[in-house]
Specification:
The protein contains 6 helices and 5 strands, in the order E-H-H-E-E-E-E-H-H-H-H. By secondary structure, the chain is of the alpha/beta class. A 5-stranded mixed sheet has the order 1-4-5-3-2. Strand 2 and strand 3 (60-61) form a beta hairpin. Helix 1 (20-33) packs antiparallel against helix 2. The two termini are 20 Å apart.
């Protein structure tokens, strides 16, 4: 994953949300705060969540906007928000949201890379339990040249 996609200021580890919509809204607000999107993208994220859940398992959701929201994206970016108390995501408890803003088809590659990370219960757990933004960044953006096995070993 490209290091420029996830800035440490976009990693928030002590968020609170009463509802799934509140969590999605907060994810969008962080993308606005880092200058990746305009406020209109938050509406597109909420629209996406209303049409189909972005829950992907292992306590993780990946909120992102609809195709109509692409015009509101300034640059590709991720935001990682942890909700320690959890959020009910249509009957599934979510502790971690990885919000995506991607122009063009950039989101397809991002989703594939995130899926690889999240398909490993150990890696997903490590991500959910990371205690500081630097650790989250390291788990999502491994050092250049590290192969998959080395990344797996860091989690253990």
């Amino acid at each position: 994953m490209d290091d420029s996609l996830l800035q440490e200021q976009a990693i928030r580890l002590a968020e609170r949300a009463a509802t799934r919509a509140d969590a999605v809204r907060r994810c969008g607000e962080v993308l606005v705060e880092i200058g990746a999107v305009t406020p209109e993208y938050v509406t597109a994220m909420l629209d996406r969540e209303e049409s189909i859940s972005t829950y992907v398992g292992e306590g993780v959701a990946i909120p992102h906007g609809t195709a109509a929201g692409k015009a509101a994206i300034h640059r590709d970016a991720l935001a990682v928000l942890r909700f320690p108390d959890g959020v009910d995501w249509g009957g599934n408890p979510v502790q971690l949201c990885i919000a995506i803003a991607a122009q063009g088809d950039g989101h397809v590659d991002l989703l594939a890379e995130l899926a690889e990370i999240l398909l490993s219960p150990d890696r997903a757990r490590a991500l959910r339990e990371a205690s500081d933004p630097t650790e989250v960044h390291r788990l999502l953006v491994p050092t250049a040249g590290a192969d998959h096995e080395n990344r797996e070993e860091k989690v253990r």
